[in-house]
Specification:
4 strands; binds 4-nitrophenyl phosphate; Rossmann fold; 14% strand; globular
């Protein structure tokens, strides 16, 4: 079984979409996974995903409305094989909490091309659809790699 934690700043816009794709695609492929998501900030702890994230995922048949935001914590390094972050600020913040090379090696940008997944929070619904498509391809990469 592979264990993935998807991380962004608020855990209400981008990482819930990443969690949704990884769980959905793993189920379709029959891969055994544990998937969760978290935010480097606790600003939205306990909140449901942003309604724009929920609606853009509902448009492709994936329900993420049951997710709840939580803050990334140090013990996450012990409980996940991969910690996949949406942008370079997340990368810096998560790596700043890592102790040792083994924990650091678990952390990577979610998009394997090295592109950031831009924060759609202050934009319109378009930005959420773009995040959804960027994250869809990236999620396939991780499952291809881990379940080849
Ligand atoms: P996320 O987007 O990191 O993709 O969940 C954000 C959501 C909320 C805020 C920032 C980013 N905020 O500052 O409240």
């Amino acid at each position: 079984m592979k264990q993935y934690l998807v991380v962004c700043l608020g855990n209400i816009c981008r990482s819930p979409i990443g969690e949704g794709w990884l769980r959905h695609d793993a189920m379709v492929r029959g891969c055994r996974v544990k998937v969760d998501s978290a935010g480097t900030s606790g600003y939205h702890a306990g909140d449901a995903p942003d309604r724009r994230s929920v609606s853009t995922m509902r448009a492709v048949g994936i329900d993420i409305s049951n997710q709840r935001s939580r803050k990334f914590v140090r013990s996450d390094f012990q409980h996940f094989d991969r910690i996949l972050v949406m942008d370079r600020a997340n990368l810096r913040d998560v790596l700043g909490m890592a102790r040792g090379a083994e924990e650091e090696a678990k952390v990577a940008l979610f998009d394997p091309t090295g592109a950031e997944v831009p924060d759609p929070y202050y934009g319109g619904q378009d930005g959420f659809a773009q995040v959804r498509e960027q994250v869809r391809l990236a999620a396939q990469h991780w499952l291809d790699l881990d379940f080849a």
